[in-house]
């Protein structure tokens, strides 16, 4: 089974040519608005020539964030075929549309392709719990060893998408970037998918934070279970 799923990922990651950049972004496309070190999930509401209209980004309390006119931003999004693109531009102000007041971004040309994801990723909504993993170094010189110690404090969240390479989960816990985690995902009533990972970035979202995790260790059984979820196979 491991060989089957590995081959499927190799074939998918190397197949197909790059998708042509879209002339306009469809309405209600989810996107990430990056300003400085902050990333905010928004929806694209309209495209007007060199201008893109989006929702106002919101902080963890759901309050709209007003970005100063002229602020440099990047807007990243994925197409229906999972190809990613980003626009670089500046905040040009707010506009009134049918949905109400919205944010207007003036970009400087065609979108830049994002690096293609290595593994197929599937949107899910699965409960999980996770623990911080501390790195303890013992001894010195050639006798120096490293030990991973799982902290007892338990955090909870919802896995929102997953691949054999990583996942994104939503949580109310303030988890710093670069944290190592042990993650236990509710696969069914009798089995938890246990993996080790590291946070690579986080995005503020209404009522919490979405953390993006790269898996560092995926045991064989977890590999098969995640692949079954992603590809929709029956592992009976």
What do these coordinates show?
- It is a single chain.
- The chain is mainly beta.
- The protein has two domains: 21-113, predicted glycosyltransferase like domains (Thrombin, subunit H), CATH 2.40.10; 122-231, Thrombin, subunit H, CATH 2.40.10.220.
- The protein has two helices and 14 strands; from the N terminus they run H-E-E-E-E-E-E-E-E-E-E-E-E-E-E-H.
- The chain has helices at residues 2-14, 220-231, and strands at 29-35, 38-48, 51-54, 72-78, 84-97, 100-107, 112-113, 122-138, 145-150, 155-163, 166-171, 180-188, 191-205, 208-217.
- The strands form two sheets. The protein has a six-stranded antiparallel barrel with strand order 1-2-3-6-5-4.
- A hairpin with a 6-residue loop joins strand 8 and strand 9.
- The longest helix has 13 residues, at 2-14.
- It is elongated and about 60 Å long.
- The termini are close together.
- The model is unreliable at 2-7 (pLDDT under 50).
Low-confidence stretches are 2-7
CATH domain class of the largest domain: Mainly Beta
Decide which structural class fits the backbone: mainly beta
Characterize the main sheet: 6 strands, antiparallel, barrel
Task: Name the overall outline.
Answer: elongated
CATH topology of the largest domain: Thrombin, subunit H
Radius of gyration: 20 Å
Named at the architecture level, the CATH assignment of the largest domain is Beta Barrel
| Relative helix content | 10-25%
């Amino acid at each position: 089974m491991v060989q089957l799923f590995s081959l499927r990922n190799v074939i998918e990651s190397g197949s197909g040519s790059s998708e042509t950049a879209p002339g306009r972004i469809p309405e209600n496309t989810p996107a990430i608005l990056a300003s400085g070190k902050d990333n905010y999930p928004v929806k694209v509401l309209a495209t007007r020539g060199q201008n893109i209209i989006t929702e106002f980004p919101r902080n963890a309390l759901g309050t709209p964030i007003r970005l100063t006119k002229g602020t440099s931003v990047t807007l990243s999004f994925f197409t229906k075929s999972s190809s990613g693109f980003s626009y670089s531009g500046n905040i040009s102000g707010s506009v009134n549309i049918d949905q109400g007041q919205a944010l207007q971004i003036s970009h400087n040309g065609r979108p830049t392709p994002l690096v293609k994801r290595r593994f197929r990723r599937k949107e899910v909504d699965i409960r999980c719990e996770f623990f911080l993993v501390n790195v303890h170094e013992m001894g010195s010189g050639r006798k120096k060893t490293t030990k991973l110690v799982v902290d007892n404090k338990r955090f909870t969240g919802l896995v929102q998408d997953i691949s054999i390479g990583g996942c994104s989960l939503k949580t109310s816990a303030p988890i710093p970037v670069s944290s190592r985690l042990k993650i236990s995902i509710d696969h069914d009533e009798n089995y938890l998918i246990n993996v080790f990972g590291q946070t690579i970035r986080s995005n503020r979202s209404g009522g919490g934070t979405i953390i993006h995790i790269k898996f560092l260790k995926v045991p064989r059984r977890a590999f098969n279970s995640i692949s079954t979820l992603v590809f929709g196979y029956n592992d009976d």
